[in-house]
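Sequence, please.
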């Protein structure tokens, strides 16, 4: 398969609207333009990381990347160090993205060359990259408030009233990934190896090379997300986006991808990211216990899949039964 589950996406969209309505009933100010903008911005970094995770998972063979948060952290630390030491900010941004790609290459080599299971390889590199980020930063945050204004505009600026990172980074990236995954030879080959790697190999596709590419892309996207986060906050932190390691996997699955590979869509991932962002921002805005927020992520995952299964399974049978009763009457 190479598309997204429209039923899942519809359920997620309705869920996000219902949750937002519930939060608004308790505190209407959450619907202000500033809060809605903040909610969308809140989702950008996590959404970009989830795009990379979706590519990895689509490749199949139990592939996941548990190091995405750590790659994001190390990339933003390196970019911040280069920028604050006088490197032009575009070069600093490129350094962060390339560092992420290099870290993804380390994951790719461990998994495709040395045959280490993905969960073990990326768990190990997660600790390694986190340690390197702490060493490079001295365990401290790096103040970027004196960084060039154009760099900070990546996370704090706006274009036509829309946050820069949404209009100029996230949405173009979403469109590009849709074309790559659904309209290119790379995308078709990726879904094929995720569905049946043996058939893909017999068809002449370099399975390991393609899977390695997904890890490199995941690293590059994690690096980009880290740089955007640093620009938005005006600081680079060695812990980066620690929750992204697992939440990005949940987002991809919520968006309709199969954890076994060969399925999924960046559109579904984007809708799932929006749903998670609404819940997270709403809970933070209303000062809910952080422990409750973690529990909500698991509850959402279970409920959405359950509702979809009911809609796709029992509901059609109930409709068919009702029609047969009408005919008999």
């Amino acid at each position: 398969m190479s598309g997204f589950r429209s039923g899942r996406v519809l359920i997620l969209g309705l869920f996000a609207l219902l949750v937002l309505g519930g939060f608004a009933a308790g505190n209407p100010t959450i619907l202000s333009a500033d809060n809605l903008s903040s909610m969308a911005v809140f989702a950008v970094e996590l959404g970009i990381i989830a795009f990379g995770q979706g590519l990895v998972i689509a490749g199949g063979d139990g592939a996941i990347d548990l190091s995405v948060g750590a790659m994001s952290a190390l990339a933003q630390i390196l970019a911040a160090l280069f920028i604050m030491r006088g490197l032009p900010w575009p070069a600093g941004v490129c350094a962060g993205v390339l560092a992420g790609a290099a870290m993804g290459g380390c994951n790719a080599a461990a998994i495709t060359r040395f045959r280490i299971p993905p969960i073990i390889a990326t768990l190990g590199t997660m600790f390694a990259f986190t340690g390197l980020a702490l060493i490079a930063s001295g365990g401290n945050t790096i103040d970027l408030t004196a960084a060039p204004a154009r760099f900070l505009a990546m996370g704090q600026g706006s274009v036509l009233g829309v946050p820069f990172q949404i209009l100029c980074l996230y949405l173009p990236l979403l469109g590009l990934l849709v074309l790559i995954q659904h309209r290119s030879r790379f995308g078709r080959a990726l879904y094929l190896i995720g569905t049946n790697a043996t058939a893909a190999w017999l068809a002449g596709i370099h399975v390991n090379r393609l899977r390695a590419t997904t890890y490199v892309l995941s690293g590059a996207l994690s690096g980009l997300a880290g740089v955007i986060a640093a620009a938005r906050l005006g600081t680079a932190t060695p812990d980066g986006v620690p929750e992204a390691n697992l939440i990005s996997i949940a987002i991809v699955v919520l968006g309709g991808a199969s954890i076994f590979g060969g399925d999924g869509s960046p559109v579904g991932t984007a809708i799932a990211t929006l749903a998670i962002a609404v819940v997270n921002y709403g809970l933070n805005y209303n000062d809910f216990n952080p422990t409750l927020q973690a529990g909500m992520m698991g509850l959402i995952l279970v409920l959405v899949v359950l509702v979809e299964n009911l809609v796709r399974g029992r509901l059609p049978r109930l409709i068919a039964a009702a029609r047969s009763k009408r005919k008999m009457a």
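The two ends are 41 Å apart (CA to CA).
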